[in-house]
Specification:
single chain; 215 residues; alpha+beta; Glutaredoxin; 2 domains; 5-stranded mixed sheet; 11% strand
Amino acid sequence: MNALLRALVVLIALSPLACSAAEAPKYKLGEHYQRVRAIQPPANPGKIEVMEVFAYSCPHCFQFEPALTKWLKKKPADVEFVQTPHTLGNPAGAPRNRAFHAAKMLGVLDKFHPALFGAIHGESRAMATAEELRELFVKHTGVKGEDFDGAFSSFAADAGFRRGESSIQAMGITSVPTLVVDGRHFVSPKAGGFSGMLAVTDFLIEQARRERAKR
């Protein structure tokens, strides 16, 4: 057997091993990410949804903001990002979360969200009452106090708050920050800090993209 033929035999023998290594998943279910307890269909079925579950009281959620903001600048076009605040069972979280939904309704969430995080973690303010939230809201968004009052106490804000709490509970999420991809899988900083969490999110987006293509 000449040298060329021997090399060809070796290449053929090794090729299945090479393919197996290339196709092995980089991240594993149960180790790097988890399956939700109950699937929550995305609000926009035409997009792959990435939902951030967070709590305003959580310092890790506050610290996650810069990395998340950087990731969002490169977000794929077929991905829709949404946020859902969670109380973590703390009653003080309820008015904050209703204020979140009020800001969303009034179209000023991009101004109010960082202001509320900053007040709690940068200024050590409780921000647990409607009065405190109203003052902050008016100062940072330019929205009139009476408009905040109406949105904050509205049925829509209360429904959004309750819907968020129930969906998070249904998915079996008990810690924050957490990212849920396509309503099916979720990942936390346990996957390797914030950078690992976002890397697994990218992996899950691609996985969801492949699964959708098969439907």
